Amino acid sequence: MESQTLLDELAVDAYRSALRAGVFIDERIATELGVDRARIAEARKALQGLRLLSQGGEGPAVPLDPEVVEVELIAPLEMSVARQRRQIAGIHRQLSTLSTLYRSVEHHQGTDVSIRVLDNAADVRREIDLARRRCTKERMSLQPGGGRSAHLLQSDLVQTQELLRRGVRVRTLYQHTARSSLTTRSYVAQISEAGAEVRTSAELSERLIVYDRRTAFVPKERKGSEPPGAAVVTDPTLVAYLCRSFEAAWQVGRPFTSTEPADQQQVSAELRSSILRLMAMGLKDEVIARRLGMAARTCRRYISALMTELGATSRFQAGVLLGRQAAENSAAGGVDSVTGDVQGSGANSVTGDVPGHDPAGEELAVHK
């Protein structure tokens, strides 16, 4: 009912005409509105179906009070809502008792550990749902791997908006390559309008979700095609470390929704710099693509353009040229003119490579 219009514009105009005349006469209303009589007959049937017109009988139909119709339509819906609320209250009452029992036994048995590893993806989702419902202050998340799939973002949209309505601060960090995803841009626009904060960075480490700086979710390494499990971390020292890692990455991130030319140019420069630096490290195209959250084909196009810029005819020659420039700048203690990195600084500790990282593993992409 909520996605449907009760009456079209013609039916409303016909009802208005009948109100002025006091009766609904097809031929007169068709002439007044300048439409076929058959269409007016359809409008009359629609109005009678909603009981906005009498059935007519021997005489013409007459308009009826819409407030009476409103009560008739709303009453069963209100009864259904009340019944569902009673069901929700009953479920909450019964499970609250069991939850209290579960926590007391868990604590008594000493199973309330600071790190729990869940092998089943469904168990991980349930834990994330629970953490989201309990969240009162902040959710922060790192989401590497480029753009997210439409069905995951649609699922997360409702949950993120619900967090924002409760006054929870929501911060999410994607990779720069997520900007090229239309579905991700649409999702970010909607949650940003509701108050979320979203930034991007050239490279990120693993997926990470932290609720209220108390509970963190870190995915396990993916093996095969099955969704991986995750570690649920509640140790204050470890969670604080993960929060500091997030903050370090957040500080250098660029606002996702920014339209400033300077930000756009910086994003492009950082992506280019990362590709050059990873090429200089001798990494293969597929590895570079995974690190930057882009398709291998896209990565090869970038590399081809950069090799042309370097004047290299092969990956080997490009690596030699990059290595030579890096060595020259390192000896001078300066800034690499090719990659823009300060020599001797090494890879960013937050965005360094993670063996086995798989940007396709989206079990934690639905932030919840």
Automatic annotation (TrEMBL):
Biased amino acid composition, Polar residues: 340-351
Composition bias type Basic and acidic residues, residue spans: 355-368
Domain (HTH luxR-type): residue spans on this chain: 273-322
InterPro entries assigned to the protein according to its UniProt record, in alphabetical order: Sig_transdc_resp-reg_C-effctor (IPR016032), TrmB-like (IPR051797), Tscrpt_reg_LuxR_C (IPR000792), WH-like_DNA-bd_sf (IPR036388)
Alphabetized SUPFAM superfamilies for the sequence: C-terminal effector domain of the bipartite response regulators
Disordered as annotated region, ranges: 332-368
PANTHER family given in the database record: HTH-TYPE TRANSCRIPTIONAL REGULATOR TRMBL2
Name listed for the protein in its UniProt record: LuxR C-terminal-related transcriptional regulator
Species of provenance: Streptomyces glycanivorans
Phylogenetic classification of the source organism: Bacteria, Bacillati, Actinomycetota, Actinomycetes, Kitasatosporales
